[in-house]
């Protein structure tokens, strides 16, 4: 056997390249950001130290708050509606339909489309004189036709629904994988014991599915909290501030309004939110995981 | 445990070393004195880097880079390029111009990055950043250039900083309402002289089954143009120093002037003067709407008649004559902001100083700038360059400019973040929401918070 | 252990299946729209439901004319593959080391890496830019490869670490007895066994690299080096007049390689996700 010190050294060697790249490109800029978040800086002239002012203003800024509100809505929706729907979809896709292969492809294909391309297509479909309104008028629902992305009340819900087009397939596939790894014997044994479908779900499916749930919920939360591409390309936050997300607000504060120090501070706040939420989530779901 | 500590120490040292390397790297880079944003020391902006060699004079072939974001394939743009190249070749047979063109707003971000990394073009166009770049030491002092004294007052904000000239400018743009003369004559309408007449006129157009005003608010800058046009008149009617007043705090963004403007937008929205697709159309689509005759008016810059003409040809619309009118206040007053469209500066690090200066001189010479202005519909930014526009609409614009008052745009006195809030308020109103004065309070807050980012226009 | 047996078909099953097919078709519609619209003649373009009766190649011609599509394709491919290769190389080693060694140090390293996952890209935007400038890598494809790799390191390492635990230690001991060097042991014996995890890393990340807009938008400026997504966006911004045909054509072309990849690796993709999510 090798000496454990040598083993240790070798281990470190293996880890070093990854650590180097990671630290240089992720942590080093982050530390710099922390410094800038305490300054007033337009990224061209000198930064000016202003202490916690940026952070204080963040909570008074209605644009950031709107972005935060939308972001939280998006995440809650993801958790409470997208998740169960994806699970349902997975259960359905698990049945032996004749068109099983087609169905699975159909639901997963949207995932492949980039958000930029999706935005181009959806923008075209949702325009006032686009396909959706065209269909609505032709089936006699003319009053339902509207400028979906130009109306303060409909714009963000529409964007949330658009994310589902891709999110459902993605999550469903993960759940599907989880479902398929549950041994059938367990179900059969429980049938013999007289368990109904509900009990089966609660005592077999759900606990054994927990690892998949952990992953899906994690992805949903982080994805929801970081939503950027769709609102950026589709509406750039409009009309007014109705479709802002936090990440979009941060981006605009930096690149459109030259308040880089402020933008970074907002970025740090966002990061703290993500950390808290994911930490809580991981603890909650991992503790419920059941190993075979 | 000890192992963990030592490992952490190693990592820390690692990080510190990186920080040191990164810091010294940026100031050790390049032999010149231009400041990078990181080290943050502004150098004497007038210096031109004595170590740079002048290669043009020696007769060797060289390439000079010219950066821009607006030189696309419209006719007057290609003519412009040809004219510039011809004149440059005459002076420098060995020189070639490399056009670094990036046709979108991303150009500004890239330019900023290039300046910070000392990879910017030798000569470049930019917009709204003259003061900042000058202060950061990126720009060559051009106060001694032959054309420097010929710059018109309206161009000062894009060319002067702390009394020195850091850039030239090509175009002074006036924004206004461009209208379809055929529709007007068909409906027996004349150009309104007061706000009440304006409303009246629009109502008549609406009654005629045509959309009065085409909006393309998906591109926020079009909302900005419209808003500024309205506020400029109202604001400067109330005070001849409206812009400065906003900066000083004697006038507020949630004051009477802004509120009046917002209420006007609310009124126009309620009266359905705008296309239903106002918020999902972008600028090109709104231009198309106007050119097709489906909308009677559009608020845009002086490029509009040219774009309309292009659209007639491209889409086969029936051509009509375009007219110009400003937006009056209740009393009939109007004030136009003749602002410079862009700055043209020389990179302080350029290796071709004389060639760069000559290139700039060529661009603002009457032979080049004249035709450019005519095609672009802009007023030349220098004295001594005359433009006679082929389109009557542009001449109407010039007449309006000469007959009315002009002042610096009020928005150059307020931070971008505050202006953005006002624009977003407009889009909200146009989407159908009632005007809420609290939105303007938000704008005022931003003004006070981000005042430090404003570089005041020169007097 | 048998897999879950599929339920037998029945009446309700048939109805459900039909409903599913309808929904599936709706899901597919936007993709269909993308390709169909790219072939429509300009006059028909705004006519929503009209199907193209012939293939109009004009939009594609225009796209190729205005934008260097081939360069965009190559750049995107180069960056994606480069990032994948580098990531796999670095993280398989790191994950293996962490998975095998129980010492606190390695667990700390893992958490350190994972903590980086929560940092949003926006936070690091400008310091990263400055960094790129300082190391003279700004506006290079290499820079993007490094950035993508750095961003993927946490999850990939985590994946490899977990998967390593399922490989019996006896293998290494046997190799050691045979006199095999440690490095060789890793690459010739362990790495091939990590293939399912490698597959997962590839499948999950190729999509995000290929479809990424933000990073190349910020850090690349040379049009010769640009990737497909920013090309689409700039193409949209470039036009003084609206001409969606070529934009659709470009978008269709950008999506096609992924669709092809997906069709050929579908089974493997799903299998990889099973492994990935279970062992994670």
TrEMBL record, chain A:
TM segments?
Answer: 12-31, 72-93, 105-125, 208-228, 260-282
Q: How does it sit in the membrane?
A: Multi-pass membrane protein
Cell compartments where the protein resides: Cell membrane
What keywords would UniProt list here?
A: Cell membrane, Membrane, Transmembrane, Transmembrane helix, Transport
Q: Does the keyword Cell division apply?
A: no
Tell me the protein family, please. Answer: Belongs to the binding-protein-dependent transport system permease family.
Reading the lineage from the top rank, the first entry is Bacteria
What's the chief localization of this chain? membrane
- Locate the ABC transmembrane type-1 domain: which residues? 68-281
In Swiss-Prot or TrEMBL terms, this protein is called: Sugar ABC transporter permease
Q: Which Pfam families match?
A: BPD_transp_1 (PF00528)
- Family annotation (PANTHER family): ABC TRANSPORTER PERMEASE PROTEIN, INNER MEMBRANE ABC TRANSPORTER PERMEASE PROTEIN YCJO
Automatic annotation (TrEMBL), chain B:
SUPFAM superfamilies annotated for this entry? Answer: Periplasmic binding protein-like II
Q: Which UniProt keywords apply?
A: Signal
Q: Where is the signal peptide?
A: 1-22
Q: Which PROSITE patterns match?
A: PROKAR_LIPOPROTEIN
**Where is this chain compositionally biased, Polar residues type?**
31-49
Output the superkingdom of the source species: Bacteria
Organism from which the protein derives: Cohnella silvisoli
Q: Where is this region: Disordered?
A: 25-57
Q: What is this protein called?
A: Extracellular solute-binding protein
Query: What's a Pfam family this protein contains?
Result: SBP_bac_1
TrEMBL record, chain C:
The UniProt entry's coiled-coil ranges are: none
User: InterPro entries from the xrefs?
Assistant: MetI-like, MetI-like_sf
TM region(s), chain numbering: 12-36, 69-96, 108-131, 143-164, 185-210, 244-264
Sorted alphabetically, which Gene3D superfamilies does this protein's record hold?
MetI-like
Write the record's keywords in alphabetical order, separated by commas: Cell membrane, Membrane, Transmembrane, Transmembrane helix, Transport
Instruction: Record the organism.
Output: Cohnella silvisoli
Where is the protein situated, by its record's location annotation?
A: Cell membrane
Protein known as: Carbohydrate ABC transporter permease
